[in-house]
Every structure is written in C-alpha cells, then in structure tokens.
Specification:
The complex is a heterodimer.
Chain A (H helix, E strand, L loop, with lengths): L11 H42 L4 H4 L5 H5 L6 H7 L20 E4 L2 E3 L1 H31 L1 H4 L3 H15 L2 H12 L3 H25 L4 H8 L4 H40 L2 H10 L3 H30 L12
Antiparallel strand pairs in A: 1-2
Chain B lengths: L5 H10 L1 H4 L3 H24 L2 H7 L2 H12 E4 L2 E5 L2 E5 L15 E3 L5 E4 L5 E4 L3 E6 L2 E7 L4 E2 L8 E4 L2 E5 L4 E5 L3 E9 L17 H9 L10 H10 L6 H33 L7 H16 L2 H12 L3 H25 L3 H9 L4 H40 L2 H10 L4 H30 L5
Antiparallel strand pairs in B: 1-13, 2-3, 2-13, 4-5, 5-6, 6-7, 7-8, 8-9, 10-11, 11-12, 12-13
The chains are: A mainly alpha, B alpha+beta.
Amino acid sequence: MADLSEPNGLSPSSALLLRHYRSQVFIRRIYSVIGVVLVLVALGAAMNFANAANSGKFFERIPYMFDFLKNFVPNDPLEIFRAMFDLESPYYDGSQKFDYTSERHYIAGGLYIPNFIYQLIITVNIAIVSTIIGGGLAFLLCFFAATNLVGAGPVRWIVRRIMEVFRAFPEIVIAGLLTAVLSIGPIAAIAAVSLHTIGALGKLFFEVVENADMKPEEGLRSVGANWLERVRFAIVPQVMPNFVSYALLRTEINVRASTIIGAVGGGGIGEVFRLSIGRDHAAKTYAIIILLLITIVCIDQFSGWLRRRLVGNQSFELGRGAA
Amino acid sequence: MSAISHAERSRLEKKYPEVFQQNFLQRWGLPVGLGITLVYLVFCWFFFNVGPALQNGKWDRAAIYVQDWYSWRAQPRLRFEDGKVVPQWSSRGQYPADADIDWLTPHDDGSMTATFDSDDRLEITTNRVDVYIDGVAYPVTITPEAAVAPADLPGAMVQDREKVLVNFGFAGQAEIRSNQVYVQRRFLGWANFLYDPRSPLWGNDLFSSIGLIFSGERVNPDKSNAQMVLDEWLGNRAWQHGDILAKLMQTLVMAFVGTLFATLVAFPLAFIAARNITLNGTANWLMKRTFDFLRSIDMLIWALFFTRGFGPGPIPGIAAIFFTDTGALGKVYAEALENVDDKQREGMKSVGASPAAVNRYGVVPQVLPVFVSQSLYFWESNTRSATIIGAVGAGGIGLKLLEAMGTNSDWDKVAYMVLLILFVVFLFDNISTAIRSRLIGPSSH
C-alpha cells in the first residue's frame, strides 16, 4: 500500500484532503473502540448476572457437564431401536423404563404403529394443520397490510399491529390457557402455533406483496376491475411462489415449535420426550432424539428442494424470518 | 367487464392459445389443491378428536380465567366461631388485619354483611344466611350438618349436597357451608399492584407515590422516599415485581449473550466453510456438516441437555442459543462469503497482500454489514424464543410464566408478564430495526 504517513511534498490541497481523511479515520476508530468496549462491558455484566442467577455455577459445573450423558448410556445400542419400534426388550423388569410393548397403537390385528412414531405423526400433523390454518389467515390478512394495496389508512395500521401482537405473544400462554380449558392435548398446540404463524407469515407475506410489480394491477384498474379482482388477477399470481416458499419454511419451524409446545403440555412427541428425560429413560430418550433429527432433516431437505423449484436460488435466507 | 363478440373471441383464442388451452394442472390445480387441503383438515378434525374435545371443554372455566386476567378477587373465608362471623384471609395477604372494608361490614351482634351489588348481598349470621338476589331475600338455614336453601331457588343459586352455591356473575360468588361462608368478591383492575398490604406504603396510589418521592416527610427516617417506594414496590409479596423483572432480565441476557457468542464463533468458522475462501474441499464439507448438526438439534434439546449440566437458570439458555445459532449463523455467513465480489480480493492479491490482509481488506468490509444485520435479526428473534426455552427449565420468564399458569389462579400475573414481554419484544424489535437500517439502508431487512 502507498505510504500515507508523510504529507510533506504534497500540494496544499492534497495535504488538506489527507488531513481530513485522517481525522475521519480517527473519529471512526474512536467510535469503533467505544462500541466494542460497550459491548464487552455489557457482555461481562450479563455473564456475571447469568452466573449469579443460575442454580449451578458455570466453572463448578463444567467438569460435570457430561455426567448427564454418562447416566444416559443405554445398556445396549440395540435397545434404542427396540424403544423406537416398541419391540420386546430382554431387560424388561416390570418397570416402565424397559416396557415398550404396552405402548403400541394397534390398527388392525397384529399391525401396530410404535408409540414414538405415532407421537411424531401427531406432532408433524400439528405443524402442518397450524401452518395451513395460520397461513390461510395470514394470506387473507396480508393484502390489508400492504401499503401498495390499501394505502396508509387505519386498516393497515390495525392489521399490522394485530400481526405484531400474534408474533410476540408467548405461545406457551395460549397453550397453557387452552390446556386448562380443554385438558392436555394437541388442540391447544394447534391454536398456539396457528396464532403465531399468522403473525410471522403475515409479515413476510405483506412484504412480498409490497415488492410486487404494480403494472398488472394498473392494467386491470384501467379496464375497471374492482379491488378484489385486481388482487386476485394482478397480485396473487405474482406472489404465490414466494408465499408457498415461505409457508414451507414455516412448516419446518412449526415442527420445532409444536415439539416445544408439546413439552409444556401440548401433546405429541415433545411431551413423551420431556417425560422420558425426566424419568431417566436412556434408550427412549435416544430413540426420540434420533427420530426428531431424522424428521427435521427430512423436512429441511424436502422443503428446500421444493422451494428451489418454486422460486429458484435467489432470496434464500435461512428464513428464521420473523420467527 | 362486458362481453366480447364471438369473432373477437376466436381471434384471441387463436392468437394466445397457451392462455385458453391450459393443461389439466393449470386449469384445475387450485380447486384440487384446496379440495385436498379441506379433506385433510376434515381428517385432522377426527384424528385430533376436535369435536368431542370442544364439547367436553370447560368453557365456563375459560370465561373465569379470562376474567382473572384483568380483575382481582378478594377471597375471605367467613368462619362461624362462638356465635360470631370472623373473616379469615388467605395467605396472600389481601387486606391488612384491621382494615375497614367497604363491602364487608361487621355488625355489633356478630353478624356480617357482604355486599356484591346494590341489590345483591349476603346477610350472614351463624345460624342463617339471607341471600339477596335482585332485592329478593332467600333465607338459607345453617345446621351443624349442612346449609339448606329454600325450595324455590332462582337460577343463580344451587343446592350442592350439604352446601349452597350462589353466583352473582362478575361481582363474585359465595359458597355457604355449615361452618363457614367462602366468599369470592371480584373487582376490576389489579389490586395491590403497587404495594402489598404488609407494606407501610399500602393504600398509596401511583400519584400519591410520585408525590411522596418529590415532597413530603420521610416515611422511614433511614431511607429516602424514592428508595423506599422502589424497595416496597420491588418487594411486593403478592406481585413479586422484583422476581419477575429479574427473570425478564435473565431472558434478555440469554438472548444477548447467546447470540453474541454465536456471532463471535461463527465468524471465523464461516471463513473455513466458504468454498471460495478456503480451497480445501474436505474442510468446507466438515465445517458445513458441523453447522448442520448444531442447527438440526433443536434449541429445546440443547436446553434440556444443558439444564441437566448446569442446573436451571440462564446459563443453559445461553448455551442452547449459542449452539443452535452458531449453526444457523455459520450457514448464513458462509453463504454471504460465497457471494462476495471477487474483484476486491483480486485487487488486494495484486498488490501482494498476505492471505490475512486479503480477507481483512478484500472480504470483511463487503460482508460485515450483512453479518451484523443477520446477528441483530437473530438477537431479535431469540428474545422471543428465549421465553419458550425458559419453560423447559432454562430459566428466564418462561419458567415464571409456567409456574403462574400451573397454579390456575394467578392469571392476572400471567397477563402482567405477557404485557411485559410484549413491551420488551417491541422495544428490542425497534432497536434492532433501527440499527439494521442504519447499517444497510432502510430498504432491505
């Protein structure tokens, strides 16, 4: 790089320019240093606070980190698959820990669905149903939140605030209220995840609508189409691929969400997972973790493939979008 | 839109055949898709037993829960002792011992009046309770075995074996037994929100508290009034403001520290994962699979795992967010790095810069705004998700929420926490959006 340290021999205007450049760089560096120091101070204070508030202290507990895994070594790796498919276990001693066969869900005769797979089906269905319900409602709402379709009126303001509240409202509260009314089960989870989906997808949807090309809309307006027809024939065909792509992304996120809601009383695999961890059922826990991993990876891959086909490679963020 | 002539129509059909002769999928795709979705929803209706669950749901209970969100209940037990009616308050300390309560008036003969509405009240003596509903009296006789209601009961009163239940609607309800009357009296608003009855400041409202801070005698000679007001408010035993705010702080700390650590770790690792920067294919592949692994194990599972290690509290939350977000941010960062403009790197290489300098001056300035904006985005979304992982034991306000919901009676506290969370989430959304738009311009997000 050119040596900028010696301003001697430069013309006066160049020297002035150089001085100005240096002062700018200096100010910028000062700002950077202040910013870094602030973040570090905040980090230190936050960690101190976290350590003080935790029931086990960080440095005391670090050596015991993997005790949990040690306790969780199943007697024999095959045990994991016996647990997964509800096969009889040679270790069965009358306790729940090795009692797999009693959890089978019989369909017809000797044909049965293993319990964990059944629970997984419930969880995935919760996710799909809530994506359909939440996505459908978000689809209806998003056109009222877009500036290019409704202007900046009170309707847009209200719809956007509703979406924000749905997005930020803690899902466990809705699930908790409904489990108190309906008793534990998947309906509470569906309601909670659906409401959240309306808020999250609604935001992504109306942003897509706002970026739509307005020329087809003008064309329809010029032949006297009403608002509904303009939305239907000018906007919807443009935004549909993006909408579907976002909905698929949301299905992925909702599988995780319904697992978590399950763990706090919404039914499905989350609930059996929490129970098996709480009761130290090693093989069962591993079976569930493996099932969850397989499911999430499968859904990831499938929806990634479908999304690529729909909208191509562009606009491909990781899509925790408004999660 | 008006009709067009036949000739015009056939001309258009000839000119744009692809519009008029669509294949089956184009023509019927939408209705078929909607039909399948509908059939699926109907199937799920039966799969999840929605109908019976809705029918068996205790919806009257739901109404009460929702009322609990914005109202407060005083719940004394009026016990019959030696010919007198003595109020006994629950442990939450709803009124101080010698309070003068305007809706519950004791009389000199040992009887007591509980007023619910102008026409609705209870006249309680130890051997007889007169229930006034819409101004009409229904005498309930108290015997040592049971409380017995008269024969012609209105809908608001029910004889339930040896006790009598009275429902006054929103104003409250009463349960008359042979040895006590259990009264629930409901008021709009959150009572004792500022100070609990055991506090010396109990009875002060917001304005008188502010007045106390800026003027007036010291209530407690050892402390300034401002300190006193703050201490008493935070130490409120009924509402536990201090505890709730500390738990909220834990949630924020979990999101902040977790995301920051994830950013710091993902930043160098992403350079290894980017194909155009690290030319070793094996290293790229290994790094990317590591990111996938960290990301695909859910935050919930990480949280449960670390809760076992560190015990409940914010540290497992931080660790869970850190692990998942390292995977997620690493992937995003690597993708951003693979999309950088090569010209600037070539420029740096052409003047003979070292590999470190090439990355520092040729790559980092291009990707830094994207990196920071993505991290802010994750920070914002983690503020929301940290509430949930709290519920599985990772500390923070989620745990507090779950506790309050578990008791089924603290719904007012749930409402309070929800409002706090909503407020904090909006605040942090706006902060992060403001920083992001200053970094990369207001148009993108």
